[in-house]
Amino acid sequence: MNRQSKFVAVLGSCHPEPVVAVTTITTALAVAAGLGARSVVVLAAILAGQLSIGWGNDYLDRDRDRAALRADKPVAQGDVPSALVGRLSALALLVCIPLSLALGWRAGAAHLVAVAAGWSYNLYAKSSVLSPLPYVVAFGLIPSIVTLVGTTHRFAPLWATAGGALLGASAHFTNTLPDLADDARAGIRGLPHRLGRVGSLAAAVVLLACACLVLALGPRGGLGLTAGVLLALAAATIIGIVVAAGRVDRSRDAFRLTVLTAVLAVGLLVLRGNQLA
């Protein structure tokens, strides 16, 4: 394998989609909250924490993924040495600590708790009935990481914390949907696996609907035109999910619409970011 292919495999082992998504969401929220240049430090700290969690997940699951013949896992396919992924995960975690504390001890502590929640998922929770809990904790803390960096050093308002937590729980169910069969063969028995495809899709939709309502109606100052449009679009996609889920041949469409609804919910959170300042 050439260096370029190995580099691509290493990146593929970090779970790049959630790494990019969480880092982008938090950075956009920091910018919207008026953190200015400090948003760059937020980006670096969040990125390091997410890389640590992503690489750690593939390193810890290496034997289980090989046994399940996971084609989407570079370590399981032998495209990258598991020892290298393990070292990168440890290095990212070490870098994450000073970067987090550079945000101030309050925001740094909040971020490190969120990272610890991600590691608790890797180490135990993903195979337990409590599998959504680390997502609830980590995503619920994202708005407070931003507000604790600010000049007031306060926790985020309840609507932002609740909205983030609901988004986190829905992200867990949505993210798990495509891999339920592979996960089951690997012996993973989190809450989505116990509920099955239909139950997990229903949970994701209900949680997303609640997140959209909280993020649209919770902040002061009324709904506003842009928030109203996003909420209406979210309602339309949720109706589409319900319709698609009723047809076996459209199950993939239901998943895509669930992801789209999550994007709209994130848009509502970022849109209200100026109220976190």
The number of distinct β-strands equals: 0
Low-confidence stretches: none
CATH architecture call = Orthogonal Bundle
List the total number of helices: 12
How would you characterize the overall build of this protein?
The protein is built from 12 helices and no strands. It has a single domain, classed as Farnesyl Diphosphate Synthase. With 277 residues, the chain is an all-alpha fold. Helix content is 74%, strand content 0%. The longest helix has 27 residues, at 191-217.
List the SSEs and their pairings.
Elements: H1 3-12, H2 16-32, H3 38-60, H4 62-67, H5 82-101, H6 105-123, H7 133-149, H8 158-176, H9 180-185, H10 191-217, H11 225-245, H12 251-271
Throw out a few tags for this protein.
single chain; 277 residues; mainly alpha; globular
Write a compact overview of the structure shown.
The protein has twelve helices and no strands.
